[in-house]
């Protein structure tokens, strides 16, 4: 089955220690997104890649970076995690192009804890 | 005014009843509307999407869109305890045909 896969499912890191979350997809979608979701809140878009073009949301902290080495893979790097960065991180993909929005498909998420 | 608004709930219905979940949006130019289901601790799962005014049915689920009133709803017929989850409404972000803006979600509880 075509899908979006995130690794790891759970990540524990220390305050200030860099961490990388990964996402891969077999849907061949050209748009990949990273969201942060905290308890009882809406998913908050951090950034997205439209093909190879990186698009940062205006309020995404500089502490968050992303890489997309090829169509299938995308990484979220948190350079110096703070306690406030503990959250569920969601990767999603969609087909971008002409016409109305196509649905976004989510991976299972990575639950990040900060010690 | 928030771009996408949902009643946070909880909305509690008995098993077998119809659950009605509502969502309003602020951008009159919005074209694409999505409903996602999210179980506690899990990621959002697409339930339905709708682009045109009126109703769209898929099994026990019906999405209803009224662009004049800037209102989209999700009806769940014959509600089951397994339907207990948070339902997220999402609308295409202003000026974009691929980014979405999500509401905070409505928590639905179906009581056996």
Q: Could you characterize the architecture of this molecule?
A:
The complex is a heterodimer of chains A (115) and B (112). Chain A is an all-beta fold and 115 residues long. Chain A is built from no helices and 11 strands. In chain A, strands 2, 4, 5, 6, 9, 10 and 11 form a 7-stranded mixed sheet that branches. Chain A has a 4-stranded antiparallel sheet with strand order 1-3-8-7, with no helix packed on it. In chain A, a hairpin with a 5-residue loop joins strand 7 and strand 8. Chain A is globular and about 45 Å long. Chain A starts with a strand and ends with a strand. With 112 residues, chain B is an all-beta fold. Chain B is globular, with a radius of gyration of 13 Å.
Specify the overall morphology of chain B: globular
Our count of helices of chain B gives: 0
User: What is the first-to-last residue Cα distance of chain A?
Assistant: 36 Å
- Estimate the global geometry of chain A from the Cα principal axes: globular
| Portion in strands of chain A | over 45%
Largest sheet of chain B: 6 strands, mixed
Runs of chain B with pLDDT <50, length 5+? none
Which secondary-structure class do the elements of chain A indicate?
mainly beta
Mean pLDDT of chain A: 94
Quaternary form: heterodimer
**Strand fraction band of chain B?**
over 45%
- With helices defined by DSSP (H or I, 4 residues minimum), what is the helix count of chain A? 0
State the share of residues found in helices of chain B, binned by percent: under 10%
The helix content of chain A, as a percent range, equals under 10%
